[in-house]
Specification:
By secondary structure, the chain is mainly alpha-helical. Helix content is about 60%, strand content about 0%.
């Protein structure tokens, strides 16, 4: 990690869990914040904004489980439930108060990280929807996958100098065994923001699901790990033959082998669409054209 300021490096490594806010990277959030504050967004628009942004999804869900809103002590594990619990006014304040990207980082650049989060979330939702024995609803898998790399956002918020390293990780090294700091930083943030234990555990273990001490978190971390593996270069024949790095994880999840090629094709389509949306000129209306984007894999 290239943190050229010793103070920034200290904050990232030793105070990961005390960050109050992180930059938003969803183009849908950027589109909303450019509108007049007197214009009240629809519930559907708010759901789209919170379901497509790692920071907002994590902060909203954490708040809904905090002592301020979680009076019945029942865990909230989806954006829709969280919005219902905290109310639209609180949710909109999170949007308006979110800091911008650090100077020197363009929205189109951050689109690479956004596309990764969105694509992993799409695959995770699809897995949960298609596996009859899934212990969580598809919305929960989507949430955890959307926020699994929030440690990268923490690094970026402290220093834009980290971006080149983050981009390289996402492109080539995301699954390397030494790629651990962002997972532990994400764990600290999730704890500080009052996210439920399975979510905290899944974020920490999303590269090593077998190390996850929480049973429910282990399933979620396995979904995220398998979803990430599906995105990386692989011969489609490997997915069918079983000669694939993620085959063991998919067997643990009980995902039929015949679905793997379809899931990978859908994921690559979603990633391409996300990158296209992130690179639209400022002021353009970002209306997804893929049915996959509109339904999150449910259609």
């Amino acid at each position: 990690m290239d943190t050229r300021s010793k103070y920034q490096s200290f904050l990232v490594h030793y105070h990961a869990g005390v960050a109050r806010d992180l930059p938003t990277i969803s183009p849908f959030v950027q589109e909303l914040t450019r509108q007049s504050r007197t214009r009240i967004p629809s519930l559907a628009q708010l759901i789209r904004v919170f379901e497509t942004d790692p920071f907002l999804a994590a902060k909203l869900t954490g708040a809904s489980n905090s002592v301020f809103f979680g009076h019945n002590h029942i865990d909230v594990l989806s954006v829709r439930e969280a919005l219902t619990r905290v109310g639209l006014r609180y949710a909109m304040n999170l949007v308006w108060e979110a800091p911008p990207l650090p100077v020197g980082i363009e929205e189109s650049e951050a689109g690479l990280l956004w596309a990764h989060c969105m694509t992993v979330a799409h695959v995770a939702r699809s897995i949960a929807a298609k596996v009859s024995s899934a212990p969580f609803e598809p919305d929960v898998a989507h949430l955890v996958a959307m926020i699994h790399d929030i440690g990268y956002l923490l690094q970026l918020s402290y220093s834009p100098n980290t971006w080149s390293d983050i981009a390289a990780r996402l492109d080539r090294e995301e699954l390397d065994a030494d790629n651990d700091p962002h997972a532990s930083q994400g764990e600290e943030l999730a704890k500080f923001w009052s996210l439920p234990t399975p979510v905290v555990a899944a974020i920490r273990a999303h590269h090593e699901p077998h190390c996850c001490p929480d049973v429910r978190g282990r399933w979620l971390s396995t979904v995220v790990a398998a979803s990430e593996l599906l995105l990386h270069p692989a011969d489609p024949m490997q997915l069918v033959s079983g000669d694939w790095r993620g085959d063991t994880l998919m067997k643990q999840l009980d995902v039929p082998r015949e679905l793997l090629v379809t899931l990978r094709a859908e994921a690559l389509d979603v990633r391409e669409e996300c990158i296209r949306l992130a690179n639209l000129p400022r002021g353009a209306t970002r209306v997804p054209h893929l049915e996959l984007m509109r339904t999150g894999g449910q259609g």
